[in-house]
Specification:
Blueprint: H1 2-31, E1 36-38, H2 81-90, E2 96-99, E3 106-111, H3 112-124, E4 132-134, E5 138-143, H4 148-156, E6 166-168, E7 173-176, E8 180-181, E9 184-185, E10 187-190, H5 204-216
Antiparallel strand pairs: 1-2, 2-7, 3-5, 3-6, 4-5, 4-10, 8-9
Helix pairs in contact: 1-2
Amino acid sequence: MREILGRRRRLRFRRKRGPVQLDAALTCAAGWQWPVLPGVGLKEAGSRGDRGRGCACPDPECVVPGAHPFEPGILAATTDEQMVRWWWTNRPTAPIMLATGGRAPCAVSLPAVAGARALSALDRMGMRLGPVVATPTRWSLLVAPYTLERLGELLFVKDCVPSSLRFHGEGGYLVLPPSEAGTGQVRWERAPLPGSAAPWLPDVEAVVDALVEASTSAPDGGSRLAY
């Protein structure tokens, strides 16, 4: 009886979460024109009722469990409403993957602790930020699209760039809320403002300049944005 009740609770949770995933994916694709596709997701619950935290892909040592494209691949990302509905109707709890670059947003990410410090520092500096995606391990600041060439030129002229930074640009991807990945729940630390227009995004150069300044302004001479 306990197993039956537990299974019913899990099914109710999945039914409740499914439409939320679909609505979020449709907002990104149809509302904001951000190309998305479903992520691979996590393994199903085990026989004892505990949800498996491993990735559903064939790689037993996957470094981003659940939070990456598999089938379809990243090139299938689309803004087509009909395709998005079909994907999440068939896989209602699939993570939402944003294909970064091109005309879509890019991102700069940091480890979660450094990300929290960075946001506090940037707020004190009066820096205007766009949406910020948070997972238990990393925070990602969404920025306006940039090319790899422009990013290379930007980083080349910097004397020092925090090694904790990662750049999600053309050909990359980013998991969006309200997805679940192997590291835990994905959420908005800074949510997009409600409305039909696509969220405003800052320029990558402005964000990197601010992060470099925040990193090098630690009173002890170290970096605020270290791991």
